[in-house]
């Protein structure tokens, strides 16, 4: 296997989370009696460019199909984040009715709807037809396709060049990252801006966030490596922010290398220096992550077994992809966790892949009154604790497993 950026042969294993189905491959009741397809979930670190990556065992077009169940708009905190971004970017760069804002992986229009409300022309590019249909209902024009150099050239032929290209949590999802970034360069106006948000590899390592590893994520990204990737395609970083989403993410700002209209923020050198001091370009930094994950596995399984022995009822909240990684790595099934609650109706009345834990609505939680509720999307912990505060009325307690098992 070769590095998908620098083509160096990969020799250094970062972590092996063993085999599991794709994290969003939820099952119907009828499918429970059918075989599931499992794929290796092994991650490597490139010793040359330090891109952390999983091999493409499961093809992206099989993951992001017409039955994709992740809809961004079901998280109120994520909607608020999108709205704040829209306000900030409009104020900073002065987008108006003569601009074009393009979002790659626009999902159900959760973000572009806010630009649209300001009468700023928008275009979404989204490979999943069902989420794109939801975006169109919000007035967000959407192309159902994967973004690539080929699609960027088609847009160019149609006279569509973007003043702003944005992508939230998509850069890690693309198997051919060079083709993806190369397409951005083609689709961007000469004085245009690119912003991308993605979970920060430093947070993943420092806070044991191994559950953010799943087949949909082909790459795990540091600023050090992303800067190299963008520069290889003629794009230059001119600013970067550390933001709290998804347990700690980066928002990068890029421009054409020849664009002299934007100065380089001191944030760029500062974050690069911070990562290098942390050891981002030294293989030692990536060692021992397997053991950290294994410790969480032991603690989680021991906790669940202890509660079952004590005749306690355990549920979970949030049928998130990271939850599936955690449960499947731990080998947890529906005999240890009775059910999981999710606000997304597209997941309700289905079953989580591999674990076969049923996904229910919130009323089911109120009726069942579990003793413990494990918050699987720990990055939304505060939002969920506030929303489900009523479980304390019957003595219920919240639990998180990342970065360490803790009863809240």
Automatic annotation (TrEMBL):
Q: Which CDD domains match?
A: AdoMet_MTases
Please give one Pfam family short name. Methyltransf_23
Highest taxon in the source lineage: Bacteria
Keywords from the UniProt entry: Methyltransferase, Transferase
Every copy of the C-methyltransferase domain together lies at 244-403
| GO MF annotations in UniProt | methyltransferase activity
Q: Which residues form the Methyltransferase putative zinc binding domain?
A: 3-64
What Gene Ontology terms for biological process does this UniProt record contain? methylation
What is the name of this protein? Class I SAM-dependent methyltransferase
Q: What is the lineage of its organism?
A: Bacteria, Pseudomonadati, Bacteroidota, Sphingobacteriia, Sphingobacteriales
